[in-house]
Design goal:
With 207 residues, the chain is mostly helical. It has helices at 6-12, 28-44, 100-104, 111-127, 144-152, 166-175, 186-206; strands at residues 60-62, 70-72, 136-137, 140-141.
């Protein structure tokens, strides 16, 4: 799409601009999150279930501003739904978006793993930073390998800013639950975000 991918856009937005805020006039952050969740809900509704398997901010494509809309790309691995995730080398994936059970190999890639990756993307939309970028380890930044172990054990989670709306933060925390069964379905995420988006627009209209 003409707006490029979400990760590239977040890297370009300056800290001081209105677009950094969740309360921007266009409510683009909630809209993008909603569009991604809706795409996941659509995919997960297929029988057999279509799982993305490689969901990251790089695979979220944006339309041009100011009316940002998003769609998902990179469904190549997702279509290999009969291939166990264990046969796909983790080095070929973006480790920062992997769920604990996928990292450890305790479970095949499932819709719940997509939801975990979505929770990571919510942290990116909030902070504009690459996941775990600002977490120091002694005197150096954590490498990808150093990130995997604490994420796999549930000891490390993506960061959020103090300005992140409570509803978004609570939803993200549910998406990032250690146990796959504790994460919401994509449809449940859509319902929450639709409500938050509606409430945000009502506030914008009254200001």
């Amino acid at each position: 799409m003409e707006g490029g991918d979400l990760r590239s856009y977040l890297d370009k937005v300056e800290e001081t601009t209105e677009l950094k805020s969740w309360r921007s006039h266009s409510a683009w952050k909630l809209q993008v999150a909603f569009d991604v969740a809706e795409a996941l809900a659509y995919a997960h509704a297929f029988s057999p279930t279509l799982v993305h398997r490689n969901l990251t901010s790089h695979s979220v494509l944006l339309s041009s501003s100011p009316d940002f809309r998003a769609r998902l790309d990179d469904f190549v691995i997702a279509q290999e739904r009969f291939t166990s995730v264990l046969t796909i080398d983790i080095s070929q994936r973006d480790e920062r978006w992997l769920s604990p059970e996928v990292i450890t190999g305790n479970a095949d890639y499932s819709p719940a793993a997509d939801i975990y990756a979505f929770g990571v993307i919510l942290s990116e939309i909030d902070t504009h930073s690459v996941p775990y970028k600002n977490i120091p380890n002694d005197r150096h930044r954590m490498s990808k390998v150093e990130i995997l172990d604490p994420v796999a054990s549930g000891k490390l989670h993506p960061a959020f800013t103090l300005g992140c709306p409570t509803g978004v933060r609570e939803l993200a925390e549910r998406c990032l639950s250690f146990e796959p069964a504790d994460r919401p379905t994509a449809l449940q995420v859509v319902i929450v975000l639709r409500t938050l988006l509606s409430e945000d627009r009502k506030i914008s209209y009254t200001i």
